[in-house]
Amino acid sequence: MNRNEMLQNATSQDWDVIIIGGGASGLGAAVDAQSRGYRTLLLEKHDFAKATSSRSTKLVHGGVRYLQQGNIHLVNEALYERGLLCQNASHLVHNLAFVVPRYKWWEGPFYGIGLKLYDLLAGKLNLAPSRKLSRDEAIARIPNIQQEHLLGGTMYYDGQFDDARLAITLAQTAADNGASLVNYMGVNEFIKDNDIITGVKAQDELTGKVYEIQCKVVINATGIFSDAVRKLDDPGAETLISQSQGVHLVLDASFQPSKTAIMVPHTDDGRVLFVIPWHERILVGTTDTPMPSPELEPRPLADEIKFILRNANRYLQRDPTEEDVLAVFAGQRPLVHEGGTEGKTKSISREHLVEVSHGGLVSIMGGKWTTFRKMAEDTVDHAAPVGGLPQVDCRTKTLKLHGWMSREDPDLPQEGHFQMYGSEAAAVHAFINEDEDRRKLLHPNLPYLRGQIAWAARHEMAINLEDALARRTRSLLLNAKASMDAAPDAAAIMAEELGHDQAWVKSQVDAFHEMASGYCVPR
Asked: Would 88 be classed as within a structural domain?
């Protein structure tokens, strides 16, 4: 993907569908709409997956907690979508075993029966059957578990993925099918004819130039910023989104030295807590904190960090402290607000809502990564008649995503930081091997090579340093301090690829250091 080419395409023709927002919802809708044959343009004011969609728990899951709450419909839908994504993005999604530790006799039948229902709801798309573990089996699976009074555990399976890399894969899939996608292109105003939306005024955030682009229907897929875009169309629109902040801590792998995750069933606020192996690190989270307003770069609260450590330490033999945290990140969930739940975001709907305004704006709100494909299908089903587009059935249930490879393919890279490229990994390796400097590690405490930064700038529309270190690679999340140390080298690599000067390098490093400092626990 090349931004200059995408921008030229975007501004030189009219479109059937314009999508505002380049997160999970928008990118999913772009794949769906373009695969149906609708000429589709996606505009993202920042970078793809800049906000919520790169800050998830990295799970493709039905939601054990929703099962406990009795939300069978949401669990059933999510388990079905989990199964489809495992098939259609098998190079990005893999099975992950979870153990629920058991310390009281009644927890065995309680979780055992519940997780058998989880298996049953997944049907033929189930990943693997859940089963009871003895004490010794539980310790073998999760060695750092608190062993005092441990009776055993229950093991079940869900899916794991890299959220930002799936976002880039969706962008590439949409482009493969003929869509145009432009990051750093914000929509500030709608074009209307007799109060009906017929296009957008979009500003290139890199140059300041404003373009008028015509289309038949506009989709608002801006997540936590959905209400702001709805109010561009109708200033009196009711507020429908409540923000809930989720925080995760990243630890060294020694805090859970196996390939199995832990699901902590009881926290102080009644949530579950996950301790998850991810990219040779351990991810621990999450929180659920109501926030007064949407923020592009939310910051974790000190109480949230303490909450995670306190609850994790109840179940871990070796307790992590704030000094052990390699990175901490926060994201805001766009929850569809329902009356009577103000301040209780755990009880606000995780399901999605599609709204069509009087002016024809189609807004997709709520939902979660696991169900992005279904959300996109519902959104485009609503958008097509608004735009007078021919009726075409959704084609994404069996659509293999860009780079698809079977998990059984012997050529599928084993390293996670190359597996994310799928069938493109051979081309990435060839690119890296063209130059000795590209084969060098970006930083000794990060898994990425210098050539992967160059590849991100040349082929994946990484426009600035943050794009490359936070989302094309996950350097920022794996070790915030190491990513800051690597920033000058990475910026120099990007400057060479993109034709920027030393002043650009300095400004990028300064900006990245300021942003990345928020991912370090204050010492």
From this structure: no
